[in-house]
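Example 3.2
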Amino acid sequence: MPLRVLLALLLVLLCVPTVQARPHSAPPRRHAEAIAIGKKALSFFLHREFRTAAEMYRRAAQVEPEEFAYVIGVGRSEAEDGRVAEAIAAYEEVVARAPAGHPLRIKAETALATLRERANAAPPVTAALPAPLPMEPAPAVPLAAPASAHTADPEVPAPVAAPQLVVDRPPPDANRSERPRLIAAWSLAGLGLVGAGFATWLGIQAQGDQDRLDALRMPDGRFNLARINYDGAVARQRSINDRWTGMGVLLGAAVVLEAVSIWLGVTSGPAPTQAVH
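Structure, written as tokens:
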């Protein structure tokens, strides 16, 4: 075989791996874009904006269809939002596309069984209330006949009473009538202080847990799955959000109680004096 032919074959063999390696530059870009969208979807999910989270997870699944975790995210978001049919459709897609034995397929099958039981559950039967009885009209009350002017008794002059000494003094039970209002005012003030203290304690606990949960994130914002799993992160964030909500409710109730107690204290003045003849 001529030397030129051997050199040409060797050149072709060297160029073939280079030509095949060029198309692999696109998947990393799609993967990075899908991860960025998935991070936004997770943020919406943790803030309980489930409808927006489902839409973001769908966009991530369109960018990287071979990653089933985004479709699982769609199912979880729709289920939390109460849209059972959409959640079932997402999990069915994972079961249909994922290979047998895949961990996400097993997770989707488990979620499907739970959602189908919820969808097939019969609604509770409510007992019908009895029809109200017809009301009878009230009997007419006869009006008294007006007195006749001819039968009226003659006017008799009233006797003139002797003048009496007028003494102004407070009623004997004035302090006793104001005592319950003062007791209620102090009680409400104490309850308001207790509620504010408990709300402060909830806020301190929630902030500490939030700092510890954020410490488990990686520099790109995702959770370090070697230190905490996805379900654990969602459960801890939900508990933190519930405590923030409880703190706000308690603070609002404390403000209302303090305002009512102040109003009761201000309006609980001494009773006015009465004239005794």
